[in-house]
Design a protein that fits this description.
The chain is α/β, with parallel strands linked by helices. It has 18 helices and 14 strands. It binds uridine-5'-diphosphate-xylopyranose.
């Protein structure tokens, strides 16, 4: 079967390479020439474990090609996956769906007989119904249909999540669309992956609800972390204890500097905005607090740093370990670590950042910070060290050598991942979030 993947960013590039891995002939449509040429030469223009091997293998085998032509895509594919981005609008909280609209407008006139367009992008509820009507207008007489099949992949595990998803969701308007999707995903369904078949609106809402729930869980534990601090409790022990309850679960209960990235922050805002348009904003207004609690973690770290440095960070040397929004990624979109580094810099601190993969992407976003080539170089003569990442390599640093590198043995553990006792034994003052 021949498929196209429209938009080859994190989602699309991973989907395209993974579908080639399942045995399909895949044509990726990417209008950014730099990205397209990179992908066509087997190079992934961002860091995602395992993806480059998969891409290079299938570019070499000829199963995966790239183009900028919607005409070629329409003639080639029986199924067309729409994977373009839906960033936050510049003028509000809602999602900017113009790339999804443009993809459908460009593709629809070229659709072949019986083609299925499958939306994977995260969109405001109601988008699929609107696009289905648009396809009917732009592609009359070819019996083309639309389905919505949201994607739940996590950066850092994108290939794994695509090939072995927790579940598949098919938002469909006909039995035929359901059958096409069941046949297409047969290799994944054969491994007993659960599938939920539903209508367009529910499929769209599943995705934003899943992300809103995850964001709420993180902000819940971060709020409790502040109570722990006020009361002298330990949020890590607390999360372990409540996490043993199957109904709660331990995942996404790590208190710290909070969530960032290209999905959770913008998806909760878009959900709130869409709920407002639908007249149910009050019901969803707790998401405002989820967002506020999340953003407050960043200013809390800045405040703690200020207190630890005696009331001002100006002219202090501060080492920041971690720049990406999470480990195993070079993505710095809405990164809590980089936001903290930036705020400290704006308050006059001399900030030196090191991230194993994200120094270049961070430099492009925040060129005024200093970037070091290793954890130890970032820490040279530091008055304060900020551990803002979950990359394990930072936990393996030789504390003896580090102690001789820094000026003050002061550390804030923004991810509550350091062995605080070992650091204290080595003479450090350790400050976690929500810990004694
Ligand atoms: C998320 C969803 O998990 C995924 O299903 C969806 O498709 C896209 O959005 P991703 O953005 O890759 O994926 O990151 P995720 O692993 O969910 O982490 C999001 C953020 O939350 C990171 O900044 C992470 O550090 C933070 N986080 C996560 C916490 O602060 N505490 C936790 O306990 C878990």
């Amino acid at each position: 079967m021949k498929v196209t993947v429209i938009g080859c960013g994190y989602l699309g590039a991973t989907h395209a390479a993974s579908m080639a891995e399942l045995g399909y002939d895949v044509l990726g449509v990417e209008i950014d020439s730099g990205k397209r040429e990179s992908l066509a030469s087997g190079k992934v223009p961002f860091y995602e474990p395992g993806l480059e091997d998969l891409l290079a293998t299938h570019v070499a085998s000829g199963k995966l090609r790239f183009t900028d032509s919607f005409e070629e895509a329409g003639a080639f594919g029986e199924i067309h996956f729409v994977c373009v981005g839906t960033p936050q609008r510049h003028d509000g909280l809602g999602a900017d769906v113009r790339y999804v609209d443009a993809a459908v407008e460009s593709l629809a006139p070229h659709l072949g007989e019986g083609a299925l367009v499958v939306g994977k992008s995260t969109v405001p509820v109601g988008t699929a119904e609107r696009l289905a009507a648009r396809i009917a207008e732009l592609a009359p007489g070819v019996d083309a249909e639309l389905a919505w099949n949201p994607e739940f992949l996590r950066e850092g595990f994108a290939v794994e999540d695509t090939l072995r998803p927790d579940r598949l969701v098919f938002g469909v308007a006909s039995d035929r669309s359901e059958k096409v999707l069941r046949d297409f995903y047969a290799p994944i369904l054969a491994t007993e992956t659960p599938v939920v078949v539903t209508d367009f609106a529910t499929a769209e809402l599943v995705k934003v609800s899943a992300n809103a729930f995850l964001a709420t869980k993180i902000s819940f534990i971060n709020a409790v972390a502040e109570v722990c601090e006020a009361a002298g409790g330990d949020v890590v022990d607390l999360a372990d204890a409540i996490g043993h309850d199957d109904r709660i679960g331990r995942k996404f209960l790590n208190a710290g500097i909070g969530f960032g990235g290209g999905c959770l922050p913008k998806d909760i805002r878009a959900f709130l905005s869409r709920a407002g348009e639908l007249g149910v904003e009050d019901t969803m207004s707790f998401l405002r607090q989820v967002d506020d609690i999340n953003l407050r973690q960043r200013s809390r770290v800045v405040q703690i740093a200020t207190t630890m440095l005696g009331g001002s960070v100006a002219r202090s040397r501060i080492a920041v370990w971690g720049a990406a929004f999470k480990p195993e990624s070079d993505d710095v979109r809405d990164s809590p670590a980089l936001s903290i580094a930036g705020q400290l810099h704006l308050r006059g601190a001399l900030v030196s950042v090191y991230d194993p993969k994200a120094n270049d992407t961070a430099r492009a976003m925040f060129p005024t910070l200093d970037y070091a080539e290793s954890a130890l170089l970032a820490a040279r003569d530091a008055d304060l060290l900020l551990h803002l990442t979950e990359w394990p390599e930072f936990r393996l640093v030789d504390l003896g050598v580090l102690g001789e590198t820094v000026r003050n043995k002061l550390v804030i553990d923004g991810r509550n991942k350091l062995d605080a006792q070992a650091w204290r034994d080595a003479g450090w003052t350790v400050r976690g979030l929500g810990r004694p």
